[in-house]
Amino acid sequence: MRDLRIPDQRHPEKAHRPDQAQPKKPDWIRVKAPTSAGYKQTRDLLRENRLSTVCEEAGCPNVGECWSQGHATMMIMGEICTRGCTFCNVATGKPQTLDAFEPGRVAHAVQKLGLNHVVITSVDRDDLDDGGAEHFAQTIRAIRHRSPSSTIEVLTPDFLKSKPGSLEIVVEARPDVFNHNLETVPGLYPSVRPGARYFHSLRLLQRVKEMDPTMFTKSGIMVGLGEDRQGVLQVMDDMRAADIDFITIGQYLQPTAKHHRVDRFVTPEEFAGYEKAAYGKGFLMVSATPLTRSSYHAGDDFARLRDARLARLGRG
Fold this sequence. Notes:
Elements lengths: L6 H4 L26 H12 L3 E2 H4 L5 H6 L4 E4 L3 E2 L9 E2 L9 H12 L3 E6 L10 H14 L4 E5 L10 H7 L4 E3 L9 H4 L5 H14 L4 E8 L5 H13 L4 E6 L16 H13 L4 E4 L9 H15 L4
Parallel strand pairs: 2-5, 3-4, 5-6, 6-7, 7-8, 8-9, 9-10
Antiparallel strand pairs: 1-2
Helix pairs in contact: 5-6, 6-7
């Protein structure tokens, strides 16, 4: 039986890749190991409901801080992805069949944790006709039923290989925020995100806005993969052309020696420069720090995002 704790079994597509040297992390990227009672309470609740989180599966450095506050990003549709992105620590392979009871368990956990804002993400499910769109919609509806005052953010796959109408299924379930990450600059897609297409992902987010202009859209990239500043600024321009409201920019961290190498650690001053540039290009909300991740401080950021829109409309 496959053991996902063993690197070669977790990432069979990377097992024969040469090791990539992992540079020493600078002081500004270090975080403390999680030990708080709140962290353990969140962990136990997730285990009790047999729920996966991207916090664990992707090895997020902020897991201690977020879980200690009762915040976790639920990862639906299993813990095995059909893609093999070179930056990602989520296991790759053939996923199991969908669990019809999972949306209810997610909704129960959201209610139990008392979340004002919840982020739902998933693995890529290229094995499903709709890429898992209906499962996303069912999860959104289950949360709305159990926690009607909670705001919902989805971080979806690209639905690249899904049947027509899949994206519409998710949008029609009316999440408050639709997030899909571009991850990197287009020139690095062949080596970083080989199963995806940059302009397809960009168009996906643009289509969300066309279907529902009131829905907030969000996307993020990692830096330190080998891109240059001009490439990052071009991605910002592309996002704004697609009317994306919120951009996140964080430092890429290499999960194992078999993953894509860290080209360099971007300094906090450079991140501050990216933040200033992004606001100058018209984003309603920007999060650009070394430890920024898609779901980091998502609840607080959603409140600021909503306020920023009202201020721009002259209602703030």
